[in-house]
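Job type: complex structure
Entries:
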Amino acid sequence: MTAALVVGAVLAVACVVLVALPFLREPAARDDRLTSPDELEQRRLSLAEERDRALATLKELEFDHRTGKVSDDDYRRLVGPLRQQAAQALRALDLRAEQAADERVPTRG
Amino acid sequence: MADLGRAALVTAFLLLVYALVAGSLAAWQKRRRLAESAQNALLAAFGATLIASAVLLAALARHDFSFQYVADHTSHELPLGYTLTAFWGGQEGSLLLWLLVLTGYSVAAVLTGRRAGREVLAWVVPTLGLVGTFFAMLLVFVASPFATQAAAADGAGLNPSLQNPYMAIHPPMLYLGYVGLTVPFAFAMGALLARRTDERWIVATRRWTLAAWAFLGVGQLLGAHWAYVEIGWGGFYAWDPVENAALMPWLAATAFLHSVMIQEKRGMLKVWNVLLVVLAFCLSIFGTFLTRSGIIQSIHSFTQSSIGPWFLGFICLITAASLALIFVRLPLLRSKTRLESLVSREATFLYNNLLLVALALTILWGVVYPILSQAVTGEAATVSKPYYNFFLHTFGLPLLLLMGIGPLVAWRRASLRALGRTFLWPLGAAVIAGIALLAAGAGSSRIGVVAYTFSVFVLASIALEFARGTAARKALGGVGWGGAFSSLVARNRRRYGGYVVHASVVLLAIGVTGASAYQTVHEARLKPGQSMSVAGDRLVFRGYETKTESNHRAIRALVDVYRGNDYLGRYKPGKNQYFAEDQVSNEVSIRHDWLTGGDLFLIADQVNANGSIDLKALQKPLVNLLWLAGIVFIGGSLIALWPDAREARRLAERYADGVVRI
Amino acid sequence: MARRGSPARLIVALSVAAVLAVFLLYTSIAGGGTPSLRPSQLTGHTGRVSLMGQVVGKPTGDAHGAGLRFQLRDVKGHTTVPVIYKGSVPDLFRTGRDVVVDGHLRNGAFVAVPGTLVTKCPSKYSPKT
């Protein structure tokens, strides 16, 4: 019975401590803001996704062509616009990065 | 001890409420420390639940019959293994298992969920808290596993048919699946609440969904195997509401797994994806509601229990809240790309999704039909096998075919000429197989021939994919065939793991077709010395033998099996009479034919006082493919789940938190 | 990008319509479900129904011979109906168990469709989830 009591007490204390931990560690936090990507960062993220997507599609097209799922004609027809798309995405990302470097300080160290 | 268990559950409940309330506040007002505190509350809730579980397990292990739950589900003679697994043998214990798995998953989700972004995680925590609060509330206020009584001398024991290794492990597997679907749901809601439109939440939950889906699939197969060998009516799936309860979310999750691939590759179908994950989650809660509430007549259901209305309320709350959220965030979910061609891989995925959802919904309709008809006409009506089989064939066969077509079609737009070439071999193989099957007499079942032909088509297309991929990799130089193969699979784990999983589904389809469309059944009353035959095997009844064991008396019929002039062995179907539970269980005898993959299934239907037997024998061709399919399924899922270092690096770079790269 | 209707929407709409059509076709041909009735609700039903009730009295006869005969009573009532059943009998079948069986009402007795007898797991062993 006492074992149960002890375990119960330890449990209760541990839970309270765990829950209060962030406040105990930083009683007066300098910066209590939950950072979320701002407008700029959101745009960078979606550009990064677009770039990855374009590159992945290109890679898949090459693979499909090599394994015969896409005919030579289709490949020639599709690869041009896809390469343009990928290049565009890469350029936009670089541009965004340049702008950001000029305009602001990096958000977190 | 029971007090500790109760206290632990109350603690878990309070912590989960805190996670819900504080977490929501923190996410809304963007307060970091409060958000971390709410996260920690989830971790602590897991700890509390673990303690409660340990208390119950300990009580089971020492046969503490002052615990009502222990007394209801175990007895002194019950072997230790089943005594421990009785943990999830009843309502309260299984709810505790659910909470344990849920909090466990929550901890893992929180610890690994940084990738989705802090602001998303901040909303994931209260969502998980909400679901956890519900189950904790049930455990504390409605169905406590720690109810005590005056210690009884012995317990009621476990239903003998549940004393089976498959049944012991079936619930945890199912729960790892059911509960696992909560995580992608929470992340989807988190992303919507945080107004995130990118794919981070999908990337973060991809493995979760796959793992939960795999567990759910394996859990169902285990259940089917148990039904086959233990209940022993000769089948493995009866379209019982409890079985359907697991199948429906699995189908929705299958659709979701495929449609997220489209969102990742093309950025389309965002709204559909979110709706699907909500559907999958709601169906999983609905599924557990079905099995517990007794609202649908099922041979498994608990009698009308008070827990039903709670679940119903929770489902309504979740459905309404999720749909409202989706509606409000609809503008954010507009995608920029369109479906370009009806003949493209995206399109085949879309067809696959539609078929899966259609199948899930028709099953759902069949399951709720009794309630609806009761409400409308005052008389409950049930639908049975023919209904389910019809829709299984109508939607399932095209799905089977699509599994073969999908991989062969290119993204965006496939030219018909290219299609013709890639289809040639699989199509040819299928046609040849079809002709061979008809020649071999498989024409007795039209559906059977169609299913087999489609299966050959899919297997051929999968084999071709591996072959072509390996050849292409080898052509790049530097490796031999083996190296090319392993390099191919290692670099495209999801794709080729997925192909292996497809192959397992085809094996399942072949096994199911053989065992149902082509089975032979014969029954006869035999006196010792008499024989009957079934599909070429002759069965001779030699009499009975009885044996008394510690907790039951075993009666076995001795049946000698002959095929032509060959003696195949003696098989002993019969019955067990359990003393403590005062129950009889059916013990079937199965002869596996390893060459053909079929089974000879013997049931001692009725043991007669005059020494004769009513014997029922079934020949089930190819049924063992079902279990083989399970193993292949696990293998394929493991390949697809295996972490990929290169991909991890790429994603880390993409989602570098807050740092603007130059 | 111009907001032309994506073919995806069309496909979804057509599919939904197709599924509904298949569904309606099926139910109109195969009919609605089988009514689930208690013995007290049986009178007047001539077609195939699903009868639920509790086994009372002692079952007699041979299910694999001339037929197993037993009385089925409303779980929460008094009306009983005699049942004649042939086919496999589940192990859990005995007096006091709740069972479900399909069949037709013929001359005051319920003639079961062979093989459709199903027993519910007794609540004492509240079985699996």
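Summary: Residues 36-125 of chain C form a domain with the OB fold (Dihydrolipoamide Acetyltransferase, E2P) fold (CATH 2.40.50.140). The beta strands of chain C are 34-37, 49-62, 67-73, 80-85, 98-106, 109-112, 118-119.
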